[in-house]
Amino acid sequence: MGLKTCRLIYLPKIADARGNLTFIEGTRHIPFEIKRVFHVYDVPGGAARGGHGLKLVHQFLIAMSGSFDVTLDDGQKRQIFHLNRAYFGLYIPPMVWREMDNFSSGAVCMVLASDYYSEEDYYRCYEEYLRAVRTGCSREIPDQ
Ligand code: TYD
C-alpha cells in the first residue's frame, strides 16, 4: 500500500451554537469497519509513542484534544502529519511504520482500528519491518 494510500480525511462537522458535533461511520467516512477503539492520553512532555508497523490492521488517528505529530514511513519515504483538530484524522493502511511525538499538554489521540488487538500483527523492530516490505512478504495471512 505505502505512503500514497495514507491520507488526512475530513469528517462531517455539525456546527451548532451549543457546540460542534463530529461523527464517524465505518466504511463510509473511513475505508474500513471499526472493530476496536483506543486512546492515548496523559503523554508526558517529550515522550514518543508508536514505533511500529502493523501487518494487516488499518487505523485512523484523530487528535480529539490538543495536538501531536505522526511520522509515517513506508520503507521508501517519510512524511510528517500534524494532527490538531477533532474533525479530521489520518488514515494509515497496513504495512506503514508510524511514530508519534510532539504531544501538546492535554493531547488525546483516539485510534480506530479494523481489528482486535493482536501482538502478532506488530512489527516492533524497524529492520524487521523493512525486510518484510522489501521482500514483499507483508501479505502473510495469520493462522486462524
Ligand atoms: P502499543 O501499541 O505498543 O502503544 P504505542 O504504539 O502507542 O506506544 O501498545 C502499548 C501496550 O498496550 C502494549 O503492551 C500492547 C497494549 N495494547 C493492548 O493491550 N490493546 C490495544 O488495543 C493496544 C493498542 C495496545
Explain the overall architecture:
The strands form 3 sheets. The chain has a 5-stranded antiparallel β-sheet with strand order 1-9-6-11-4, with no helix packed on it. It has a 5-stranded antiparallel β-sheet with strand order 8-7-10-5-12. The chain has one helix at 126-135; strands spanning 7-10, 13-14, 21-22, 36-41, 49-54, 59-65, 68-73, 78-83, 88-92, 97-101, 108-113, 122-123. The radius of gyration is 15 Å and the shape is globular. The protein has a single domain, classed as Jelly Rolls. 7% of the residues lie in helices and 40% in strands. Strand 2 (13-14) and strand 3 (21-22) form a beta hairpin. The two termini are 23 Å apart. The protein has 1 helix and 12 strands. The protein has 144 residues and is mainly beta. It binds thymidine-5'-diphosphate.
Annotate the secondary structure layout.
Elements: E1 7-10, E2 13-14, E3 21-22, E4 36-41, E5 49-54, E6 59-65, E7 68-73, E8 78-83, E9 88-92, E10 97-101, E11 108-113, E12 122-123, H1 126-135
Antiparallel strand pairs: 1-9, 2-3, 4-11, 5-10, 5-12, 6-9, 6-11, 7-8, 7-10
This protein binds thymidine-5'-diphosphate.
Task: Provide tags for this entry.
144 residues, mainly beta, Jelly Rolls, five-stranded antiparallel sheet, 12 strands, binds thymidine-5'-diphosphate
